Amino acid sequence: MRVAIAGAGAVGRSIAGELLENGHEILLIDKAPTAISVERVPRAEWLLADACEITSLDEAALQRCNVVIAATGDDKVNLVVSLLAKTEYGVPRVVSRVNNPKNEWLFNESWGVDVAVSTPRLMSALVEEAVSVGDLVRLLRFSHGDANLVELTLPEESALAGTQVGDVQWPQDTSLVTIIRGTRVLTPTREDSLEAGDELLFVAAQAREEQLEDLLSVRRTDTVR
Prior knowledge:
Residues 137-218 form the RCK C-terminal domain. It holds the Pfam family TrkA_N. By secondary structure, the protein is an alpha/beta fold. The chain has helices at residues 10-21, 54-59, 75-87, 119-131, 209-217, and strands at 2-6, 25-30, 45-48, 67-70, 93-98, 115-118, 137-142, 147-153, 174-181, 184-186, 199-205. It starts with a strand and ends in an 8-residue tail after the last helix.
């Protein structure tokens, strides 16, 4: 998979390194000569250019990319890069960094953003996830379909403890994607039983989050069919 990353700072280079380790083809773009540090990510392609300029993106052959990541420290730049990648080059997947949480509302499909990653919100969510049991924690927002990646640690008092996944009447527009149990990461099947202390990861429509939290956290008698 070919991935272009706009912004070759610490964040961009870190993402590039991880993706290279996973076998992807990486192009780093930055307009600052001081940011071009080929020796730090030697296996990546590098381009000294302004990612907000069409001529630069033409040179980068953005139409060949499967994913574009706008990872600069400037939200205005990230929005412009996202919009150009999606509308001018038809990039299938655009991921954008949100630096200021006040700007999150802009990072949506209208600006070409498929996935918005807010570092402050993510750090806050991880803190909540580390200390919360029974509370739904929003980890990541997906622009398409108004869906979020959410996590909840199943409390001991939950009626679902000991219930098989296939017997739970999950809310509409929610999907259980992973169960983290101790050091194990499980892909849930209908026969798997939920256990108190399980970290459950869902992709869920925002409108269903409260219903999902109630189902998982509150002891009730109508949770299974």
